[in-house]
Amino acid sequence: MSVAEPGAAPLPARLADIAAQAEVSEATVSRVLNGKAGVASATRQKVLAALDVLGYERPVRLRQRSAGLVGLVIPELTNPIFPAFAQVIEQALAGYGYTPVLGTQMPGGVTEDELVDQLVERGVTGIIFLSGLHADLSADPGRYVRLAGRGVPFVLINGYNHRVGAPFVSPDDRAAARMAVRHLTDLGHERIGLAVGPTRFVPSLRKTEGFTAAVAEGNVQGHVQHTLFTVEGGHAAAGALLDAGCTGIVCGSDLMALGVVRAARQRGLDVPGDVSVVGYDDSELIAFTDPPLTTVRQPVRAMAQAAVQSLLEEIGGTPVQHTEFVFQPELVVRASTSLAPHR
Fold first, then answer.
1. Fewer Cβ within 10 Å of end Cβ, the chain: N or C?
2. Nearest to 232 by CA among 275, 266, 263, 199
């Protein structure tokens, strides 16, 4: 068995490395690689997973036949939170023997409905939707009723819609906004803004509800600007919020927060000396921005694994309760927030 780098000769897999990764003995690794009996199924899977993690190819005799195709429909790949979800979902599906098929929407490109039709035509066993049209209250929920009528199980992540009968997996967006506001009020900020996406999206509405409740509880002034979940959207919202005198700004995404930081600096303001900024998602590399971004971490791994588990139960004939499974976010404090200027 070997792993090859482009342009390099194959390198032999080291039993010691695989054993350390799988937390088993080298003898156990040897038995698995040679297809010997006497190894528990769970242990065998740990060894195979270790091969995958270390980048070694599985021996041909150990390669599992696909249990089926599972579609993953996501909005786009430019926001790093979506690839983060996709990676965990694809790893989890592969661990159960399913082959993930990624369908990505792009502005002016293939629509969600067209992607679903293509996936169904390919014979997918089920579909996971991430931040799809189910989260848009202006969209027709009938598309999901029709999909269920075609006998395709599906699970939806981010954006609960009571008009759709399916398992939902969501972060607690209200709690996310509340903890961000409380962090800023604890730092002495008395005028706090929220830069968030359009009102037709469920996550935007929930963040706004949490924000409004938190500023009332903290007895501070709150200002809300609805825009796009992008760097440009954050930049645009920042103008109005800074004009309103906000010294702390909570954002609906990390990308929006980067736009707020840029807008503040264009005005000659320091972050966090003059303006504190809180993001949302904690996607990869956000800890390395300038300044490192304080943000509310979306529990990506737990949510993705729950979505996969729910879908596999539906596929297996064990219907999951058609309700919303809510996961708690976490405030990660870094260097983009500090005491309010007057403190």
1. C
2. 263
Q: In 3-state terms, the chain is what percent helix, strand and coil (to 5)?
A: 40, 20, 40
Q: Rounded to the nearest 10 degrees, what angle do helices 26-33 and 15-22 cross at?
A: 100
Q: Which ranges in the chain belong to alpha helices (H)?
A: 15-22, 26-33, 41-54, 81-95, 112-121, 142-149, 173-186, 202-217, 231-243, 254-266, 300-315
Query: Is-contact 192 309, C-beta < 8 A?
Result: no
* pLDDT tens readout for residues 148-191: 999 999 999 999 999 999 999 999 999 999 999 999 999 999 99
User: In the block, which residue shows the tokens 């150990």?
Assistant: 62
SS3 198: coil
Task: With beta carbons less than 8 A apart as the criterion, state whether 325 and 170 touch.
Answer: yes
Sheet holding 294-297, edge to edge: 221-226, 191-196, 248-251, 276-281, 294-297, 330-332
The set of long-range contacts for 145-148, using a CB threshold of 8 Å and a minimum separation of 24, is: 147/116, 147/120
Nearest in space to 131 (alpha carbons), one of 219, 190, 72? 72
The answer to whether 119 and 71 have CB atoms below 8 angstroms apart is yes
259-317 pLDDT, tens digit each: 999 999 999 999 999 999 999 999 889 999 999 999 999 999 999 999 999 999 999 88
- Distance, in Å, from the CA atom of 48 to the CA atom of 38, rounded to the nearest integer, reads 16
Task: Give which of 75, 199, 194, 195 is closest to 137, Cα–Cα.
Answer: 199
The closest alpha carbon to 136, from 117, 113, 154, 120, belongs to: 113
